[in-house]
C-alpha cells in the first residue's frame, strides 16, 4: 500500500512538472501581451520596449520558465497583466466559490446519479427503461442549454431562484448556486447513473452473487457486501475524473449565471491574454485532475485491495 | 481618438457591446427608424436609495487611473476641470474658467471650495500635476496635449493660488474641448507621488474629488468595485449611498440579470436584446445620442484596398438599411462620413459644421455604378481581400458578413479573418501584424466634443500624427486645412478649415463609415437620473441617480 501511494505521489509530481512546462511554453506562444500590458494607451515604440524589458518578454522561454518555477516554489505565481495584483490573491477568493459550486454539484451527482443507477439495476424493466431514456436526454443536453431552460423555468417563470451572482452568506450563497449546480450536474448525473447501473448489473449476474443468494444470505446484505462493494471501485474511479471535469466545466455555468469563480476568470483571462493568470489556472486544473485520480485510486484500493494489486506491481 | 483606444484595449474589442451614436438633436434623421425618441438624460431621481448594482459590459477595467484608461466607472470617481453636459455642451466644473488669454497661453481658474475624498482642498499644484499626467506619451490623452510646450518649467505651471497656466508651442483650437474629458481629471499630487505607478490599481486605488468614493479595498479584483456617496461633494450629495459595479460581458447573462432585477442598470447594453428590454415587466431602455460608429478602412498601402475608387465601390455596394436592421436592431442611423454629427452639435460654429456635413453625399446603393468603378480602377481583384475583425464581437462579425456579401455583389472576393483579441489589438501598433490584411473593421466613439480626432489619426501623413493612416493617404490640401483647423485662433475659421478638408477626404473614404449607433442604457423601473448620451464617458453620470 505504501509503495503504491509513494509511486502515485512521484507520478503526480512528474505529471505536474511536465504540465507546467507544456502550459508555460504553450501560453507564451499564443498571444502578444503588449496590448494587454499597455492598458488603454497607444503603445509607442519606447513604451513597447519598456514593457518588454519590465516583463522580460525578450528572454528565452527557458530562462523565463526557470524564473517562474523558482518564484512559484516560493509561493509567488506572478502578477496579473490586467489587474496588476498578484495571481494568488486574485484566484484565492474565487476558488472558494468554484469549490462550493463543485461540491454542491457533486452532491447532486452522487444522490441522483448513483441513486438512479441503483434503481435502474435493481427495480425491474420499467424503471430501468425510464432511467435509460432520462439519462440519454441528460447526456444529449449541453450545459448551457440546460442553464437557459432552468433560468427560463425556475427564475423567469416561477421566480424561485436568482439568476445572477454568487450571493453573500451561507444560505444566500447556497440559494444562488442551486441552478448553476443543477445545470452542471445534469450531464454528469446521466453519466454516473449509466456507469453505476452497468457496474451493478455486471456484479448482480456474477457467480459469487448467485452463490451467495443460493446460500440464503438476505438480499440487502448480498447487495451491500457482494454487489455494491465490488462495483464501488469502478464508480469511484469515474467519480474522481468527473469531479475534475466539473472544475473545467464550471466555466460554462459560471459565465451563464454571472458567478465570479475561477472558471469565468479563466475564460476572461484567456480572452484578455492575461498570461500569468491563464498559466496558474491551467496548472491548477491539471493538478486537480491528477490529484483526484490518485485519490480515487487509493480509496478504491482501500475498499478492495485485490482490485489494484496487479496495477501496482506493473 | 477612442477608435484607437478601443481597438488596442484587447478586451474592449471583444466585449464592447453597443457603443452608440447620433443624429441632429432636435430632428431625428428621417432615414433612421422613426419611432426612436432620443433622450440624453433622464429626469433626476428624487428619493434616496441605499444600494444600486451596476453592470459594466466592457468587463473589469485594467485600471481606474484616468490617464491610462477610459471606462464608465472613472467619471463617477474623478471630476474633470470642465464639466461635460448630456447634450455634449461644456460647463464650468472644478475650473470656473478655462480660456486662451492669447493664442498660446491658456489660463485655468479653479473653484476654491472643492476637496478630495479625504477632506484635503484641491490646490493648483494638484491640478498641474494631474494635467502633466496627460503629457506622458503613455497616456490615453497624449494627443490632446501634443501642442503643449514640452518644457516642464514653462509648459504647465502654477501661476496663482487657484490658477494654472498652460503654454503652447502653437495655438490649439481643440484643447479646451478636450478638458471636458478625462485628460483633465483631477487627482491628488501627494497621493499619486506615494502610489507611483500603482495609481488606479485595486491595491492602491485613487484620490479624487468625484461624487462617489473608492475606499481602500473597495475594488475586489475579479469580483466587483464598491463605491460610496461622497457626502461633501461640491456639486451636491448623490442620492445613491452605495454604487457597486459588477462585470458582465456575456450578453445573454446580462440581459437576464437586468430584466430579472438582479442588476439595476447598465450602459451599452446589446441592441440585439432590444425586444427583451422593451418587453413586459422590464425596466426602461433609454436611447441616447452618441458619437459611436461602425466602419472599416484600409490596413495597407498596396493593392485594391489602398485605392479610393475600390473603397467608394464597396461603400456603394453596402445596403446601410440592412446594416442598421441586423447589426444594431434599428437603433442607429446612416452616417455620411467618419466624423459624426453629435460631436459638433454644441461647438460654437455648429452651423458651419452642420452645413458642411449636409453638403456631403448620402450613402446609397448602386451596384452597377460600383461594378463600373471596380472595372475602371484597373486594380487586380483576382486575389481575395482580407478583412480583419476581432473574434467573438458579435456586431463586428455581422458587419464583416455584410461587407463580404456586398463585395461579392460587385466582383470583390473578401475573406474574413476573425482574430483573437490580442492579435487584433497588435494590428494597431505593430505594422508586421498587418501583413496580408487589407481591411480592418472597427467600432469607436469620441468621448469629448470636437471634430479633429479621427481626421488627424486617419488622414494626416504618419509624420504629422496620422498613426492609423495605413494606406499612406497624403493630400497636401487636406493636411494644410486640418493643420489650419487645429491651430486656428477662432472657432469660425477652425470650422471653415475643417469643412474644406472634409469636402476632400470624405469621398476618399479613409474609413468606410457604415452607420452611427445610439447609446443604449437600461435601468430598473424604480430608478431614474442617469446621463444616457455618450457624455456618460466624461461626466459623473450617476450623480443624479435615485428613486423615482
Model description:
Chain B: Pfam families: SBP_bac_5. Chain B: Keywords: Signal. Chain B: Residues 1-23 form the signal peptide. The complex is a heterodimer of chains A (314) and B (548). Residues 309-314 of chain A have low confidence and may be disordered. In chain A, 40% of the residues are buried. Chain A has helices at residues 2-30, 34-37, 45-54, 61-73, 87-122, 124-140, 143-157, 170-204, 207-214, 219-256, 262-271, 275-303, 306-313. Chain A contains 13 helices and no strands. Chain A is mainly alpha-helical and 314 residues long. The two termini of chain A are 14 Å apart. In chain A, helix 1 (2-30) packs antiparallel against helix 12, helix 7 (143-157) crosses helix 8 and helix 8 (170-204) packs across helix 10 (219-256). Chain B has 548 residues and is an alpha+beta fold. Chain B has 3 domains: 78-194, Alpha-Beta Complex (Dipeptide-binding Protein, domain 1), CATH 3.90.76; 199-290 and 519-547, D-Maltodextrin-Binding Protein, domain 2 (3-Layer(aba) Sandwich), CATH 3.40.190.10; 293-517, Dipeptide-binding Protein, domain 3 (Roll), CATH 3.10.105.10. Helix content of chain B is 27%, strand content 20%. Chain B has a 7-stranded mixed beta sheet, with no helix packed on it. In chain B, strands 14-18-13-17-15-16 form a 6-stranded mixed beta sheet, with helices on both faces. Chain B has a 4-stranded antiparallel beta sheet with strand order 4-5-7-6, with helices on one face. In chain B, a hairpin with a 2-residue loop joins strand 4 and strand 5 (105-110). In chain B, helix 9 packs antiparallel against helix 12 (367-377), helix 10 packs antiparallel against helix 13 (394-409) and helix 16 (476-487) runs antiparallel to helix 17 (491-508). Chain B is globular and about 70 Å long. The model of chain B is unreliable at 1-33 (pLDDT under 50). Classes of the chains: A mainly alpha (314), B alpha+beta (548). The interface between A and B is large, with 44 and 52 residues.
Amino acid at each position: 500500500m505504501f509503495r503504491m501511494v509513494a509511486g502515485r505521489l512521484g507520478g503526480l509530481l512528474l505529471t505536474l512538472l511536465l504540465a507546467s512546462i507544456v502550459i508555460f511554453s504553450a501560453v507564451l506562444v499564443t498571444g502578444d501581451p503588449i496590448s494587454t500590458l499597455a492598458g488603454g494607451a497607444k503603445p509607442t515604440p519606447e513604451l513597447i520596449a519598456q514593457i518588454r524589458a519590465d516583463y522580460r518578454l525578450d528572454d528565452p522561454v527557458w530562462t523565463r520558465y526557470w524564473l517562474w518555477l523558482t518564484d512559484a516554489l516560493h509561493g509567488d505565481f506572478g502578477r496579473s497583466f490586467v489587474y496588476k495584483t498578484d495571481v494568488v490573491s486574485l484566484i484565492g477568493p474565487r476558488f472558494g466559490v468554484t469549490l462550493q459550486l463543485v461540491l454542491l454539484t457533486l452532491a447532486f451527482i452522487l444522490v441522483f446519479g448513483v441513486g438512479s443507477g441503483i434503481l435502474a439495476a435493481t427495480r425491474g424493466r420499467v424503471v430501468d427503461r425510464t432511467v435509460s431514456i432520462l439519462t440519454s436526454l441528460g447526456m444529449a443536453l449541453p450545459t448551457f442549454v440546460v442553464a437557459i431552460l432552468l433560468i427560463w423555468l425556475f427564475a423567469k417563470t416561477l421566480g424561485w431562484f436568482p439568476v445572477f451572482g454568487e450571493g453573500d452568506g451561507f444560505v444566500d450563497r447556497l440559494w444562488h448556486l442551486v441552478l448553476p449546480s443543477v445545470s452542471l450536474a445534469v450531464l454528469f448525473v446521466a453519466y454516473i447513473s449509466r456507469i453505476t447501473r452497468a457496474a451493478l448489473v455486471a456484479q448482480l449476474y456474477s457467480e459469487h452473487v448467485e452463490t451467495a443468494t443460493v446460500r440464503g444470505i438476505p438480499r440487502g446484505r448480498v447487495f451491500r457486501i457482494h454487489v455494491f462493494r465490488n462495483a464501488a471501485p469502478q464508480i469511484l474511479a469515474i467519480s474522481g475524473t468527473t469531479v475534475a471535469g466539473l472544475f473545467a466545466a464550471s466555466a460554462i455555468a459560471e459565465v451563464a449565471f454571472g458567478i465570479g469563480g475561477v472558471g469565468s476568470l479563466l475564460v476572461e483571462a484567456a480572452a484578455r491574454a492575461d498570461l500569468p493568470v491563464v498559466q496558474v489556472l491551467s496548472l491548477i486544473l491539471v493538478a486537480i485532475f491528477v490529484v483526484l485520480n490518485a485519490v480515487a485510486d487509493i480509496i478504491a484500493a482501500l475498499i478492495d485491495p485485490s482490485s489494484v494489486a496487479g496495477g501496482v506491481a506493473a | 481618438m477612442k477608435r484607437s483606444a478601443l481597438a488596442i484595449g484587447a478586451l474592449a474589442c471583444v466585449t464592447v457591446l453597443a457603443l452608440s451614436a447620433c443624429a441632429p438633436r432636435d430632428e431625428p434623421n428621417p432615414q433612421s427608424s422613426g419611432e426612436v425618441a432620443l433622450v440624453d438624460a433622464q429626469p433626476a431621481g428624487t428619493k434616496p436609495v441605499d444600494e444600486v448594482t451596476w453592470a459594466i459590459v466592457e468587463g473589469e477595467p485594467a485600471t481606474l487611473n484616468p490617464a491610462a484608461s477610459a471606462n464608465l466607472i472613472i467619471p463617477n470617481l474623478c471630476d474633470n476641470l470642465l464639466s461635460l453636459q448630456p447634450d455634449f455642451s461644456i460647463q464650468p466644473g472644478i475650473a470656473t474658467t478655462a480660456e486662451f488669454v492669447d493664442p498660446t497661453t491658456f489660463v485655468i481658474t479653479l473653484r476654491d471650495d472643492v476637496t478630495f475624498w479625504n477632506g484635503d482642498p484641491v490646490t493648483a499644484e494638484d491640478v498641474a500635476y494631474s494635467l502633466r499626467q496627460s503629457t506622458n506619451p503613455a497616456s490615453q490623452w497624449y494627443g490632446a496635449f501634443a501642442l503643449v510646450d514640452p518644457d516642464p518649467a514653462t509648459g504647465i505651471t502654477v501661476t496663482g493660488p487657484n490658477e494654472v497656466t498652460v503654454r503652447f508651442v502653437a495655438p490649439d483650437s481643440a484643447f479646451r474641448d478636450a478638458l471636458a474629458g478625462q485628460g483633465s481629471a483631477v487627482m491628488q499630487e501627494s497621493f499619486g507621488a506615494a502610489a507611483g505607478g500603482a495609481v488606479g490599481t485595486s491595491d492602491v486605488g485613487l484620490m479624487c474629488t468625484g461624487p462617489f468614493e473608492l475606499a481602500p479595498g473597495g475594488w475586489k479584483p475579479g469580483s466587483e468595485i464598491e463605491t460610496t456617496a461622497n457626502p461633501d461633494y461640491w456639486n451636491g450629495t448623490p442620492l445613491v449611498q452605495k454604487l457597486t459595479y459588477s462585470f458582465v460581458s456575456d450578453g445573454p447573462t446580462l440581459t437576464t440579470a437586468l430584466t430579472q432585477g438582479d442588476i439595476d442598470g447598465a450602459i451599452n447594453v446589446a441592441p440585439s436584446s432590444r425586444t427583451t428590454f422593451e418587453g413586459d415587466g422590464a425596466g426602461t431602455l433609454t436611447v441616447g445620442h452618441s458619437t459611436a460608429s461602425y466602419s472599416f478602412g484600409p490596413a495597407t498601402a498596396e493593392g485594391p484596398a489602398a485605392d479610393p475608387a475600390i473603397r467608394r465601390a464597396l461603400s456603394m455596394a453596402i445596403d446601410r438599411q440592412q446594416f442598421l436592421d441586423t447589426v444594431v436592431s434599428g437603433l442607429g442611423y446612416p452616417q455620411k462620413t467618419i466624423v459624426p454629427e453629435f460631436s459638433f452639435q454644441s461647438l460654437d460654429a455648429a452651423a458651419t459644421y452642420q452645413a458642411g456635413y449636409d453638403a456631403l453625399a448620402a450613402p446609397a446603393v448602386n451596384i452597377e455604378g460600383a461594378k463600373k468603378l471596380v472595372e475602371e480602377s484597373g486594380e487586380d481583384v483576382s486575389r481575395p481581400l482580407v478583412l480583419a475583425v476581432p473574434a467573438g464581437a458579435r456586431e463586428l462579425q455581422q458587419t464583416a458578413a455584410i461587407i463580404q456579401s456586398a463585395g461579392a455583389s460587385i466582383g470583390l472576393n473578401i475573406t474574413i479573418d476573425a482574430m483573437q483579441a490580442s492579435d487584433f489589438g497588435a494590428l494597431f501598433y505593430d505594422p508586421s501584424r498587418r501583413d496580408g490584411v487589407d481591411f480592418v473593421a472597427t467600432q469607436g466613439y469620441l468621448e469629448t466634443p470636437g471634430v479633429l480626432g479621427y481626421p488627424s489619426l486617419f488622414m494626416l501623413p504618419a509624420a504629422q500624427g496620422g498613426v492609423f493612416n495605413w494606406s499612406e493617404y497624403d493630400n497636401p490640401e487636406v493636411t494644410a486645412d486640418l493643420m489650419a483647423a487645429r491651430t486656428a485662433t477662432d472657432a469660425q475659421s477652425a470650422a471653415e478649415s475643417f469643412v474644406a478638408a472634409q469636402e476632400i477626404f470624405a469621398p476618399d473614404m479613409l474609413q468606410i463609415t457604415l452607420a452611427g449607433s445610439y447609446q443604449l442604457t437600461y435601468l430598473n423601473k424604480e430608478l431614474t437620473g442617469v446621463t444616457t448620451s455618450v457624455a456618460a464617458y466624461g461626466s459623473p453620470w450617476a450623480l443624479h441617480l435615485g428613486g423615482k
